[in-house]
Structure formats: structure tokens, C-alpha cells
């Protein structure tokens, strides 16, 4: 197809420290909430690290980052999104002085990326709240978290001000509503957590995010700082007006977070929601001033759309995706029940652009699947993952449609560009990557890396700036 992707488009891949670095107790690193959730972000919480927690070793990127970055460079990555593990810098989260070994690791990582001309895109907090802050302070429910986060971001912004240009404040910040421990370090069990405390935690994160934006622009005015949200367009099950209202209300639960990031104030619909649900928040005049520090761009993950109805009998017929809604009869689903909707990506890109008129960045999109390692024509192990190629091709064709619609899009990073541990299930068999990692859910494997069929496919997409995509 004739490409519409702009010159300088930031093609790349995305990962998170807690899902692939490993080395959970190396060089002074502290424990994070991930180290006590061996069954994933929605599973039970243990007292401490347990041998069945695949995230403790991950794929050992900590010791193999040079090998992996060389593979990313071979694919032609223009950017690489990852996160800084807060607990490598401040092991408990509330120290005053940082851990130099942790800072040095990311110095070395960013230098390696620079060697290949790959721009780092760095998430400051990607489901990696220090465990001490969760247990001692109940995570983001506590206002003190703003100060701890401020100390952390000042430290890394100052340290890497000449090495990193693109920053994200919180990964999928709106996920705190669905996964308060994984996303917000909230130790109070969900069934005991009041709506007031939950939305107070949301408020503290929003203030901290705006404060990070302010601090970052002061340290280096050339920084580009974005928010990061789960994007999930919502469709009505029918054209009944009540279903349309149900969609509007479901959408607002997600848009609330990006609305505050972009507009710098709470929207009226959330004030009504708080009133009608008896939610009382402590919002100071200083908080309101800080919130006015708005983001430079809006980034998001996109995996699925959702369907809503106001009819309780139809809702009872079955759940939809991981974050709720109901089943959409027009869509197929992945092996993990995530409904596949490429056109929904065009919808949400246009929705965000029309709503905000801010540059957008797709920083997660991909297909988790069970991959079968086989011997390729060259005698090397590989994976014939045409299903992944088809998924990504179809989504990127819709991205091209959105760009043709007039959407200002900075870049696209596929999720899990190298196999890593799933956040939602803590499995390794749920693979997303272009690169197969020989490690399995029972802990076995050599950790060797092998190129899948999709590796060369994505290399060609990047080399042609999207011209190799197939319109179906």
C-alpha cells in the first residue's frame, strides 16, 4: 500500500522492567508489588517472593540487554519503550538518597540504545510501586506518595536529562480502578476499599503526574512528557437510547484520566459521579494549580474494544473482555478471550484526536498467543507466527486510515517485542514477541533468543515506513 506514515515516524517495540529484566534482588534492588503476585496482577498476594513467580527472573534482560538491543536495532527500531524500575533507584521508595548501581544500569542501557540511534521512550511507573510503599503507606491512597514519587522523578529526570527525551508518567493510569494493588500499590483488599479512598488514590496519581510534567519541563524544556491510558472504544449493543447512555458512562470512566491530563481540571461529569456516589475527595487549591501542568502528548495501549448495554438480562448473558463489558457477537477473540478489533483502533485514534487535538502515540498493541518453536529453512529454531503478522498488519492498516483521517500520530510500539512474562496472568506461554525466548512456565529453558517469522515482517514494515502493509 502507498504509505501515509509521516517521515520520522517512531516505529519500535515496548516492554516493562518488571516483566523482563529479572535480577529482582541484584545490585541493591528492592521488592516491588510485582514480586508478590506470582499469578499476575489480578491474582493473590504472597508475603514475599516465591519460586513460582516468573517475574523474578523474567527473561534476564538485566544481563542480556546488549544482545536484545542489537536484535531491536536489526529490526530497525527508531524508538524503544521500557520502564525504569523505581525499586532499582529507591529500593524502598521512601529513601532520600538513590541507589547508584540502579542509576548506572539505566545509564548503560540508554548508552547502548544511543549506539544504534534508538530513542528511549521511558515509563516512570509501570506497575512497579515499591512493596514497602504499598505495605507501609497503602500505596497511592496516601498523599505522602506524591512526595516519594517527586523525589524519584527529579532524580531520574536530572540523571538522564541528556539521554532521554520522551517520558510517560504512569502506565495505564486508568487501570487503578480495576487493579488497585498492581496499578496503585493499594494494599487494602478490593472488597474493603471504599470508592472515596480509590478515587483519592486516583487524584494523588493525577497530581503526581502533573507535578512530574512540571518538573520535567523545568529540568529540560525539550522533554516531551505524555500520559498513558488504556484505550478501549465502547460500542452500544443496540441503538436503544439507554444503551447509548450506558456507552457514554462507560467511556467516561476511561476518558476521565486523559481529560484531566490534557485539560488540567476535573470534568463536570466526574464531579456529578462523585456527588451521586457519596465520594468525597481532599483536593487542595495547590492540587488544582499543579493539575494545570498538562501533557505534551497522549499515549495509550490498545488491545480490544468493549460493548455495553443498559439491559441487565443481556448483560447477564456473558462477559466481554478482561475489563468488563459484554460479548460482541461480530468479533473473534484471542486464546485469552480478548476480542480482536482492528477497526476499533482507528475509532479510538480519531476519538482521542477529535477530543484533545494533541499528538498521539500508540505505545502498546499486540497479540498474546501460544507459539510453537520449529526448525526453520536455515536450520535455526523459529516460530511461524502468521497469526501475529495478520493481527499486527490489520491493526496497522487501520492506523494508516486514521493518519489519512488527519490524526497526528507520533509513533507505534508493539507490546512485548521480545517474549516476556504476562502482567495479567504471569505466564510465559502467552507470548507477544518478534523474538522467542526459550523459557517456560515451569522455569525451564536456556533463555536463548530466536527470531520468529514476524521479526523479518516487522523489519520490512519499518524499512518501508508502512508501505509493505497489505490492505485486505
TrEMBL record:
UniProt-listed Pfam families: Glyco_hydro_1 (PF00232)
Keywords: Glycosidase, Hydrolase
Single GO MF descriptor: beta-glucosidase activity
Domain of life: Bacteria
Active-site feature positions: 364 (nucleophile)
Protein family: Belongs to the glycosyl hydrolase 1 family.
Name the record gives this protein: 6-phospho-beta-glucosidase
Species: Trichococcus pasteurii
